[in-house]
């Protein structure tokens, strides 16, 4: 028979499409973990989206979803259990030669002759120790005790017999191993009955192998997440909140820096405009003479008409004292305005420098706090990933305790 299944089956004159059944991986939409369903999840119920797992209601039928789907099984960008998921079915590992041998040993023990069970167990104790249906043989100390318990009776019997019956005593010695094997066969149950009892009641054998002080083991997902993982989750949430608060503070500081920069630019424009206006309004010597006439200077309208005899003489010039006074006033005004502007500029520069230093100091402190926060977050996430990997280790990988020897 071919190992591959056909795609179509002809049944009662009709071709029927064949869809083989495979066990799917159980996934929980509440805690977003595999191994159990949502209705048996021990974690508290949350209003989570079945597509992406975020805390918002699932979009209804016919609505256009706004979130990106996330698979619980493989963490891919598709819905959980979708046909695009390659890991939605439970895949068994291929059988190893050791597992095949363990599966074949119980059937071979059933068909084996029970009269030769003792001799075969003595010949191959390793196969009996590794068998799942047969308990291991007793140790050498138990066999030594049995031999010692038989030796006094053997000496008594040998002492009571006479020398004439040595041949019969030798024959009894030759028959004794068979009697011992028969006693062992009678004292121990057969392999067939033992394998039947092991197949019928595996839970009873497991419970009997437990000690009196051991409690019954429960499934890992029923116990819920350990306290260390819950504590690390709370730490991660607190770090995320602090990170968002620092981001908001940095954005506020950046807006303040932009406002200060615009304010400084406007002040520089005003200063340049004031300097240009001062240069335009600075009076010259002729303008000051027109604006402030000298009373000592002769007025041509009021002065008498010069006589012809004085026509060739030189006219009286403007006094130099008034000219020097006008020049001094102009220089004083210019120096005063320049000094005021320079002091204003120095004050503004000092204030701007202090504010910039404060802002840079705050940014530097924020950067250092971000570095510390990043290192602590990475350490917390590393611990969380290690604990999560330990928590997600399947219980089947743990080695089963060796069965106790039957004395």
TrEMBL record:
UniProt keywords, alphabetically: Coiled coil, Metal-binding, Zinc, Zinc-finger
Domain CCHC-type: 28-42
Region of interest (Disordered), residue spans: 89-220, 280-323
Molecular function per GO: nucleic acid binding; zinc ion binding
Biased composition (Low complexity): 111-124, 132-144, 200-210
Entries under InterPro entries matching the protein: Znf_CCHC, Znf_CCHC_sf
Taxonomic superkingdom: Eukaryota
Keyword Zinc-finger: yes
Compositionally biased spans, kind Basic residues: 153-182
Comp. bias (Polar residues): 98-110
Coiled-coil residues: 236-270
PROSITE patterns documented for this protein: ZF_CCHC
UniProt keyword annotation of Manganese present: no
Name the UniProt record assigns to this protein: CCHC-type domain-containing protein
Organism: Rhipicephalus microplus (Cattle tick)
Taxonomic lineage: Eukaryota, Metazoa, Ecdysozoa, Arthropoda, Chelicerata
């Amino acid at each position: 028979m071919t190992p591959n299944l056909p795609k179509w089956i002809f049944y009662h004159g009709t071709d029927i499409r064949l869809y083989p059944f495979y066990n799917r991986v159980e996934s929980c939409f509440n805690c977003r973990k595999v191994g159990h369903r949502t209705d048996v999840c021990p974690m508290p119920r949350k209003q989570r989206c079945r597509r992406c797992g975020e805390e918002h209601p699932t979009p209804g039928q016919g609505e256009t979803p706004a979130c990106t789907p996330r698979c619980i099984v493989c963490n891919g960008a598709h819905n959980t259990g979708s046909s695009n998921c390659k890991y939605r079915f439970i895949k068994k590992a291929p059988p190893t030669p050791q597992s095949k041998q363990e599966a074949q040993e119980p059937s071979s023990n059933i068909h084996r002759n029970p009269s030769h069970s003792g001799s075969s167990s003595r010949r191959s104790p390793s196969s009996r120790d590794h068998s799942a249906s047969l308990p291991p043989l007793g140790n050498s100390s138990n066999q030594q005790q049995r031999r010692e318990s038989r030796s006094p009776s053997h000496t008594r019997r040998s002492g009571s017999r006479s020398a004439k019956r040595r041949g019969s005593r030798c024959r009894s010695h030759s028959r004794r191993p068979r009697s011992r094997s028969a006693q062992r066969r009678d004292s121990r149950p057969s392999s067939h009955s033992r394998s039947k009892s092991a197949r019928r009641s595996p839970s009873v054998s497991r419970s009997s192998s437990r000690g009196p002080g051991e409690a019954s083991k429960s499934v890992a997902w029923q116990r819920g997440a350990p306290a260390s993982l819950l504590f690390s989750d709370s730490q991660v949430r607190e770090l995320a909140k602090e990170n968002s608060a620092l981001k908001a503070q940095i954005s506020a500081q950046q807006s303040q820096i932009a406002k200060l920069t615009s304010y400084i630019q406007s002040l520089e424009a005003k200063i340049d405009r004031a300097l240009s206006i001062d240069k335009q309004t600075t009076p010259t010597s002729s303008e000051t003479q027109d604006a402030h006439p000298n009373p000592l200077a002769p007025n041509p309208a009021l002065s008498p008409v010069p006589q012809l005899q004085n026509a060739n003489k030189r006219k009286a010039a403007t006094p130099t004292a008034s000219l020097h006074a006008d020049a001094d006033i102009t220089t004083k005004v210019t120096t005063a305005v320049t000094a005021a502007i320079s002091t204003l500029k120095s004050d503004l520069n000092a204030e701007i420098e202090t504010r910039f230093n404060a802002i840079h100091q705050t940014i530097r402190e924020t950067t250092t706090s971000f570095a510390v926060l990043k290192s602590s977050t990475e350490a917390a996430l590393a611990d969380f990933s290690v604990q999560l990997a330990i928590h997600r280790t399947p219980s089947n990988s743990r080695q089963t305790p060796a069965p106790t020897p039957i004395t």
